[in-house]
Structure formats: C-alpha cells, structure tokens
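Appendix C reproduces, verbatim, an entry submitted by the partner laboratory led by Prof. M.T., so that reviewers can inspect both the input and the predicted structure.
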Amino acid sequence: MKTIMGKHKMLACLVAAGLAANLVGGSPVEAKKSDDASTATLEQQMTELQARMAELEEQLKAVKASEKATKEQLKKKDKNKSKLVWSGSLKTGLEMETNKQNKLKSEFRLYGDAKLDDGWAANIGIKIKSTTEMAGTFSDKYKDGYEKNKILLNAANVSKQFGKAGEANTGKITLGTMKAKVGEGLWLSKGGTNQFLGEYYITKNDIFRASYGYDAHDYLCNEYDGRARWDAAKGKVKAADGPTHTRLLYFFDYRHLFAKKSDKRIVDQYAGIYYGRHQPDRYVGLYGRTPIVGKLWASAEYIRNNNTSRFYAEDKEAEGMYSYGYDFIGSDKKTKGYVFELHYGNAKKAGDWEAALSWINTDQNLFMNSKYTSFDDYLDQTGYKGFGAEFSYQLSKASKLSLIRFWGHTVSDPLNVDSDGNQQGEDTKNQVYIKLTTKF
C-alpha cells in the first residue's frame, strides 16, 4: 500500500514538473538551473545584508558609547562647577627689630572657592598666626619670651557675577566677610572685614568699586575675652582687655586701566582715585602702577586724612574702652602719607628673582594703628619716614625666600601731646626680616 502511494506521489511530482516546464516554455532541467541561480543570488544578498546589519550594529554600539561618555563628561563638568577648590599659603620667618625684641613668626592661610551655577560663587578662608617675641634675657641661664596665637576668619562670602567678567556693562556683588583693599594697600588692605562690595565695569578699561561695612578686630581664638567691665571701686567702666567695638569702614574707588600685561609689559598699567572713611577719619587717595622698561616697573600711592584725632580729646573713656584713638593728640594739621616703590622682575618659577626699593613717608596720626595697611610692620600712629629694600628668590614653583631690610624713624608733630602733656619722641625703626613663603 505504501509502495503504491509512493509511486502516486512520484507521478504527481513528475506531472507537476512537466506542467511547470510547459508553462515557462522550457524543460525541467532549465527550470532547475534558473532556480539554482536565483537561490545563489538570494543567498549572496542575504550574506551582504547580514554583513551590513552587523556593521550597523557596531556603529550603533559606538554611538551609544560616545553618548554615554558625553553624558558622563557633562555630568562631571556640572559637578566640577560646584566643587570646592582649595588653596593656601604658609609663611615663616625671623624678624629682627631695632629694639632687639626679635620675633619668630608663623602663619597659615587656607582658602576654598566654589563656582556655583548662574554666576554665583562662594569663598571661605581662615588665617592662623603664631608669634613668639624673644623679649630678652631673664637670667644668666635663661631667655624669656612671649607667645601669641590667633585664629581669624578671613573670608566667608557669596558673590554673583552679572555678565562676562571684565566686559563693558558687567558687574559683580559680594556680601559677607572678605578682604577690604583699595589702591596699593597704603591705607587699606585687611582681611576679615564684614562688607558689601559692588563692582561695575563701565568699559573694559574703567572699573568702579564701592564697599560698605565695618572693620575687624576680634579673632576666633585669642588670649583676651574682649569685654569691658564696670569698676565699682573707681565708679566707671574698666577698659576691655581687647577691642570688641567696630567702626564704620567704606570706600569708593575708580580705576582706569591703560594697558594689560604682555610680553613687553610685566605688570598692568593703571591709575586710580578713591575716597573712604574709617570712622571717624576720612581718606582721599591717588595710586597707580606702570611698567618702565623690560622687567623694571614702579608703583605709588598718596593719601590724605582729615585728621579727627582731636575728637578723642572729648571722649577719653571711649578711647580706653575700645582701645581706639591716638596716644598723642592736639594738632589740627591734615595728615598725609605716600609710598613709592621701584620693582625689578616678578618671580614665578624656580630660579626667578625679584627686587624692590621702597620710600615711605607718613605723618604721625595718619593711622590709628597698623592693622589695616599692607605695610603693617612699619606704619602705625607714630608715623614713619625711611626706605627699604627687598630681595626674593624663587626656590621652586611654590616656595619663595625673601630678605627684607628697612631703615627709618618715627615722625612727630610738636602740637600732638599725650594726657600728661608730653610729645612723642622720635625713635629709630630699623628692621630685618627673613621670610619663607610657600603657596599650595
């Protein structure tokens, strides 16, 4: 039965093949050849299509990998925008003065800057300072000294930049604890002040700055508690161990930039004028900086004070309470001061060196103390007249060794006297300072 059915199937196939051959006009052999050719072509196309699909698959993988890498880079970039970047410096040195009260100084500063989104930024900073005064001989075998350690909040502020920095009609506002500085620092260069600072670029070369706030005295950690107390025995307020009272401090500053640094100009060339108040004193100042030739350049600042020292003659209790005021008062003469410096070089990399010559002349009572000037080692209410020299050598990209030498003396106004009617004597103020500075 199976054999018959098999024969029938074979016969049916032959009939079908014959019919197909008749329909196409050829023999069964020719049809088979045609089918084989079509199959070969189809297989070739299938092979090419598979190869193309494999190629597209590889390209798709590459695109996905590139897209993933781009997303990670963008994510990392966004993360870096708000990342806190740390920088700082270490200073240590030996200061030898005319009065032989030599000092060993160490100072540590640390700053953190964070760029946030939409032009916002934050800045924090702290300063730790240690000073050992080698006062003199305690006995034949021992030398005594005094140590003072201080911690100061130098910066804690937030700022907002409007537009691209340095372009015309752009500005910036900063609010919080910051360094207040104007000009070349003869009058004001002090960290830790609480200020509101606004900066506006009128053009690319003209900038106007205004700062308003209060000065700074107290440290986060110090030897005194700074509180005034009632003295029952004397029936009045006992002077505080240190300053707890702050004074109004503000300035308005305009600067014009003539030329920026280039291969021929080692520093910016600019000039400026400012008006400021450190209550109750008022200051007007002129300043500037210019390259001369090659690596030679100069800087200068001139200031005048309206001299309100007589104000303290009417309120001696306030002077004692807050450690403010001048020791010698009485003169109505306007006080003035200036500094002129000639510089050579600008040490940046290992092996570089730089030098500076300075001439300083300030009247007695130009400043109430030495806390706010860049020249705090020489300038205070006693006045100063003299010149100095500084030589610095860059030991490495981070470290610089400096030798500073000043020769000068105090300046006295004969109309200024103390509470006992005595004038301030003129004292020699010479100094040698060997300093190592390391930035990181």
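Helices lie at 2-24, 28-81, 316-322. Additional entries are available on request from the coordinating office.
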